[in-house]
Structures are given as C-alpha cells and as structure tokens.
Amino acid sequence: MMNMAQARPLADARKSPVQKAPAPRPARSISPQVVDIGVQVAVVVVLAGIWEFGARFGALNPFLLPPLSMVLVRIWEDLIAGTVPVDLGLTLYRALTGFAIGAVIGIPVGILMARSAVVRWFFDPLVSIGFPMPKIAFLPIFILWFDIYDTSKIIMVAFSCFFPIVAATYAGCSSLDKWPIWSARCFGAKERELLWEVYLPMAMPQILTGLQVALPVGMITTIVTEMLMGGRGVGGAMIMAGRFADSVGVFAGIVQIILLGFVVVKSVELIRRRILIWHPESRR
C-alpha cells in the first residue's frame, strides 16, 4: 500500500487548481471603415498624380487640362484676394436656401398625400409629371416672373428639390407598419400625437434619404443657374473664365465645386447619423 508520504503529494495535486495556459491575444484587425477611407484617399491621390504629371510632361494638352498645381495656385490666389469665399458663400447660400424652402413645403405635402386621399388625388399627377421633367426648363419663366437676381435662382433650386423630397416622404409615410399605429390609437393617441410620435419617427429614415438626394440636386441646379444667368458665384465665375479662354480658372471652379459638394454631403451624412442614433442603421 501507498504510505502517507507518497499520498500527500497526490492529494495536494488533486486540490491545487489546474494551471491553464494564457489564451493568445487576438490580432488587431483593421476597421473596414479605415480600409474604405484609405482606398478612397489612394484613388484620389493616384488620379491627382496622373493629372499633374500627365499635364506637366506633355501627355495631356496643358491648355485643355492645366496641371493640378497651377489650379491649386489659382485657388490660393483667389482665396487671398477674397473672391473664393464670396463665390462659395453665394453658391452655398442659394443652394441651402432653396433646399430649405423645398423641404419645408415638400415634407408636409408628402405626409398629407399619405394620409389624405383628396390631397393625394390632387398632387399625385403633378408629382408624377414634374418628377422626371428637367426643371431647368422653367428657368426662363422664373426669370420673367421674378427677377434676374437671387430670387429666381433660389426658387429654381426649391422647385428642383421639391419633387424628390415629396416622393421620398410619401413613400416613407405610406409604407409604415400598421401595428404601431393601431396600438397607439388603442391607447388613445390623437392624430397630432400619431404624427409626431409614430408617423415621423418611423418614416424619418426615408425622409432623410429624400433630403440627401435633393441636396446634390439643389447644388447642381444652383451651379447651372449661375452659369446661365451670370453674376457672382462659382458657376458665374466658371462661365466668365470660359469666355476668356481661362482654362485654369474653369478647372479652379470645378475643384471648388468638388470640395464644396464633398463637405456638404458628408455633413448631411453626419446629421443623419445624429438624428437616427436610435435607429438600427446607426448601430450597423
């Protein structure tokens, strides 16, 4: 039989906990968002390099496509002279003012179309006809009705933004799940409470999508109206440079439009995430 001296180590071994090897730390993976941003930056850098070196070394006609460095120098000179802030400010003011007017009118119309058969009967043919139609064709009419200054430009932008906002709002409000609405009515919710606490929160993602679609449309409309009507603004400066065969000035306006559009679109995306912080899409 086993003596006490031999049994004690075995008993101690049974009592002592099993020493597990430390688990290896998982390797840090790069976030997909960081990868996407890196790829986008790399694409922009490659295209900018092709533009610069292609124009510098004669692969591209420097008059038709001036080097990027010359364009950036022109933007810096205009920035120092004060013309860039004025032009960008006027363009942004016209675009955002017209966009706001279109949203203030379009969202209620879309909600009423979804909730009232009479309103839908009246507006549905107008939206169906006006949505695919090129709105810029109405610019001569707006010039005759209003003026050749900011009023007609802003109304033209509001008119262009109105239709996508109405369509998105109507689609969002007419496709809501009926169970939350019925449940709210069973608990005694009034129509105003249904609107603010049920309809708008549930339709908000699609309404914001319509606003995100309408804002670039408003920016494009603003640039086109400035080109056609002249005056201060990025579009007016570009058309004036084109009349004097100033290709550097034209491309300087294009770069300004790209930067302005990028800032505006990304700002709207941040606002959307902030508003829909409660929505599952924010968690994704």
Description of the molecule:
It is found in: Cell membrane. This is Taurine ABC transporter permease. Residues 1-28 are annotated as: Disordered. The protein has 12 helices and no strands. It is mainly α and 284 residues long. It has one domain (66-283): MetI-like fold. Helix 4 packs parallel to helix 7, helix 4 (83-115) packs antiparallel against helix 9 (191-229) and helix 10 packs antiparallel against helix 11. The longest helix has 39 residues, at 191-229. The termini are far apart. 25% of the residues are buried.
In short:
Helix content is 78%, strand content 0%. It has 284 residues and is mostly helical.
Question: Count of DSSP E strands?
Answer: 0
CATH H-level superfamily: MetI-like
CATH class: Mainly Alpha
- In DSSP terms, counting alpha (H) and pi (I) runs of 4 or more, how many helices? 12
| Terminal residue distance | 67 Å
Question: What's the architecture, going by CATH?
Answer: Orthogonal Bundle
Counting helices, strands and paired strands, the structural category is: mainly alpha
Low-confidence stretches: none
